[in-house]
Design goal:
This protein is mainly alpha-helical. The termini are far apart. The radius of gyration is 20 Å and the shape is globular. The protein contains 15 helices and two strands. The protein has a domain of about 130 residues. α1 runs antiparallel to α2.
């Protein structure tokens, strides 16, 4: 069935949304809702299908080609297809790396376009933003070195890939540039203020992965990003309103990030004590799974 559905996808165009969107979702869940042994076989079948990968290439490119002003307030069939495409490609990247699966056809993605999608948003629905951030996390976790993916930048001259780094810091962070990093961090902070649960989870996860990537590339840059004073204002913003408790998943995960990178100007001993006090007084059985996991990570880090 996996073989048949992937072949069917390869015969479609991105405009066949009614057929493609459920088909790509089927491929996605076939990869994730199975045993490790079957997952390895499944990803091998899918990555050997050149027509499927060519179709996915076209779907990803439609993210920049389809006009943002035409998007309705709700998730359109076109945007739903884009979400499925980005999530499936992110899964391919992670699972192909896990099993070192042979690659028969590469995918090409413009890193500048991906970053700008998050930085400027351009009326993109929340679910599409989340899907693109999942892709961004996947490439960050692999240090932009996946054999399945070719990263290109603004320089579209024949044979060109990323623009050449303009400073020592840019060289260390390549293919990212310092300006892109700071713009991305500010945009992620702004998205957190929306207090949408799905978006918050994706944003915090993306921020965690970004700082981990930076720490490997240049520790000074990572610590500088993690200790930006704006983070403290962000925490106060997240704690304002109806739910003032520190025991919110996104707040706990942010706190864990700041403790990990020793950002004492963002989180003090007083806040750490408050969180531990709240945890001691809370009914653990009533906490959501996301909160329990985030609290466990925070206490382990402390």
């Amino acid at each position: 069935l996996l073989f048949s559905v992937s072949n069917l996808c390869g015969k479609c165009s991105p405009r066949d949304t009614d057929l493609l969107q459920p088909s790509l979702n089927f491929l996605y869940w076939s990869l994730h809702q199975t045993t490790p042994c079957s997952q390895q076989r499944a990803v091998a079948v899918l990555l050997s299908n050149v027509s499927l990968l060519e179709l996915l290439q076209k779907v990803l490119e439609c993210t920049w080609l389809w006009s943002p002003p035409s998007r309705p307030a709700h998730l359109s069939s076109e945007d739903a297809l884009l979400c499925s495409g980005w999530l499936l490609v992110a899964s391919f990247l992670l699972i192909q790396h896990r099993y070192d699966t042979e690659v028969h056809q590469t995918l090409s993605v413009d890193l500048t376009e991906v970053l700008n999608a998050v930085i400027f948003r351009n009326k993109k629905p929340i679910l599409l933003l989340v899907s693109i951030m999942q892709f961004l996390r996947a490439v960050l976790r692999q240090n932009f070195s996946s054999s399945l993916l070719v990263i290109v930048g603004q320089n579209k001259a024949p044979g060109a890939t990323q623009p050449q780094p303009s400073s020592l810091q840019d060289t260390a962070l390549h293919p990212l540039a310092m300006q892109q990093v700071f713009s991305l961090v500010v945009s992620l902070q702004n998205l957190l203020v929306h207090k949408d649960l799905l978006l918050s989870q994706a944003v915090v996860a993306c921020l965690e992965t970004l700082v981990e990537y930076l720490y490997v590339k240049n520790q000074d840059v990572a610590l500088h990003v993690a200790s930006q004073p704006w983070h403290r204002f962000l925490l106060f913003t997240l704690l304002s309103g109806g739910q003032k408790s520190f025991l919110q998943p996104e707040v706990l995960r942010l706190m864990t990030l700041f403790v990990r990178y020793q950002s004492s100007n963002i989180i003090s001993q007083k806040e750490i004590s408050q969180i531990i006090q709240e945890a001691a007084e809370a009914n653990i059985a009533e906490l959501s799974e996301a909160t329990s996991c985030a609290l466990h990570l925070f206490l382990s880090q402390v």
